[in-house]
Amino acid sequence: MPFHDVDALRVVWHGHYFKYFELARTQLLRGCGLDAGELVGRRFQFVVIDSRCRHGGPLRYGDRMRISAWFSELGRTVRISYEIWNLTLDRRAARGHTELATLDEQGQLLFETPPAIVARIRG
Questions:
Q1: Residues of the domain holding 97
Q2: CATH number where 29 lies
Q3: By percentage, how much of the chain surpasses pLDDT 70?
């Protein structure tokens, strides 16, 4: 873990876990062609409507980590789940999810995930 993410006790501040989730979410969406591009960004927007993190053990300065992200639910919203694994201690540091709703071009909330987005996720 980088020094700028830790507090005086050299423990990663709990709010940074959401930053790590966002980095993994961006990579996952880019892999499906859903990062800001022709579909998302022009025709649709994602907004986070729920985010959760359950901590299992602290990450400390110098620890190595792996974060995994995957689509866990698809329907009215898109749920992306995460796991942060502390490679140094070989144990889970955190797990969580973010839930994304979709807005149309005018910023109106859509009550179902558009078929074009579902098709890209199911690839």
A1: 3-122
A2: 3.10.129.10
A3: 98
